[in-house]
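Entry type: protein chain
Record version: 2
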Amino acid sequence: MRDEAEHMVQPKTDMQARARELRLAGRTYDEIVAELGVSKSSVSLWVRDLPRPARKITEHSRAMAEARWEPLRRARDLQRQETKSAATQEIGRISDRELFIAGVALYWAEGTKSKPHRRSELVTFVNSDPDMISLYLAWLRLLGVENSRLRFHVLIHESADVAAAEHFWAEHVGIGIGSFGKTTLKRHNPKTVRKNVGENYRGCLTVRVLQGADLYRRIEGWWYGIVLGVKPAA
């Protein structure tokens, strides 16, 4: 009688141990039930003290999720493009005065500025966006700044394709690479996870205007004129 009881308990103990192994391996209740042929309530009792396994995302479920979201994503992208296109049409060709105002605001947001603790009336603009550079150069031409007064150099991480970046910026502004100043390399920190990487990363272009003290004072004055122009009348 005792031997018979021990024979019945042993398999149950083995299945309980196996159920715990499967649960620790990340198997669900249904998977354990299917493999061991026991009730779900037994499995729940045996493994209830174990942590719940991380949710598994199978290729099938991933494909189903992608299929479900793809139409919504396409509709959203189409709506985004339509909104941007409509906004572009609202601008059209801009006047010299509009370019003048836009250039002042652009420089005051992105250009170097004199500080109370460090007086420096230099006209230097640094940006990674080619369109920003194009707008800035168009503004300088509007102001009558000669090309001979402009100096360019690239600022980029040393781990990037420096030569490709130099050629890109030289072509973008329409001058020979030999007319650029020495490229400034940012030292790479392996601990930093940079997102500005890949073939589209070209660093920043620095544009400096020689003998720019008088121009800088005018830019500062223009900016404060804009600020005063939007203040309510007293």
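Comment: Residues 59-91 form the longest helix (33 residues).
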